[in-house]
Amino acid sequence: MKDWKIKLEKVREKIEQLGIDAILISHLPHIRYLTGFSGSSALCFVSKKDAILITDFRYKEQVKIQVKHFKKLIATGKSLLDITSEKNIMQNLKRVGFEADHASFAFVLELKRTFKNVKFFPVKNLIEEISAVKTAEEIENIKSAIKISEKVFNEVLKLIKPGISELDIASEISYLHKKYGAEKDAFDIIVASGWRSALPHGVASAKKIKKGEFIVIDFGCVFNGYHSDITRTIVVGKATSEQKKIYQIVFDAQSRAIENAKSGLKANILDSIARNYIKQKGYGKFFGHSLGHGIGVEIHTLPRISPKSNYVLQNGNVITIEPGIYIPNFGGVRIEDDILINSTPQVLTTLPRNLIEI
């Protein structure tokens, strides 16, 4: 991790702004964002002078490889909070923040029991707000994840035909992701065909593909902790005029949004550009989800591109733009690409966006 110092400085700036002495980070993707550690058990403590990763004996050797710039505490035969207390990490601290959206009630109770002299404050979106603006290194990781997913999609297209199941397609995507260098899928792969393509989150089922059907394929992978997220809609055989019409509306709505995805624009305005176009074409009631979301160390993060979001887009945001139309008993269309925000938008995905007929 080349940019650890920049990230740490930003966390300390946030601590100063919030008027707290330190932050205890418990959400594993955020810990990986700051430290590079990818294990399944950890806490990260950051104060104005200390930066400490706390994990257990299973990761004693792993942290030596992954974590270079943080002090390390290894708990053996005791909890992570117990070793934190034993080493007096919070000694003389009065106000410590915790991640409100990621700490369980039980965890907060244990914090208060273990550190009776410390007052704990719920903090929202501290890491999310910092990580919403990507460094050059992070952008390269996202590009690498996209490149893997696109290679996989081009391979999988060759296998799609009537009679193959949605699960067959999803399984092949998962296998090829790892074969081509990904850590794992970014989420449960969506393969939704025929009537199921009208389900926005139609995770792959045993349904067999039939000729003439839409297939919505929403897929992504994780590379070095960073996510890709892409959706393409295809037709098995020749598309009908109605299928072409629906696809073109979604395509045009997405194109309009991409053209306007620039720094300084509010996220809700960007959402409205695509949403209003779909409404004007008479399909507004069939587009019920937000236009997009940020991606990075998590598949859904800031900024949210939704009607309620007042977030002002900044240089370095990486977002998805994914309008859709979902008509029950007919089918659905979604097109999703990953966009780097700048003074002009940069589309990081390179797969063709036109309707694919196979």
TrEMBL record:
- Limits of the Creatinase N-terminal domain: 8-130
Give start and end of each Peptidase M24 domain.
Answer: 140-342
A Pfam family annotated for this chain is Creatinase_N
Which UniProt keywords are given for this protein, alphabetically ordered?
A: Aminopeptidase, Hydrolase, Protease
> Which molecular-function annotation in GO is an example for this chain?
aminopeptidase activity
PANTHER family membership:
AMINOPEPTIDASE, AMINOPEPTIDASE YPDF
Q: What is this protein called?
A: Xaa-Pro aminopeptidase
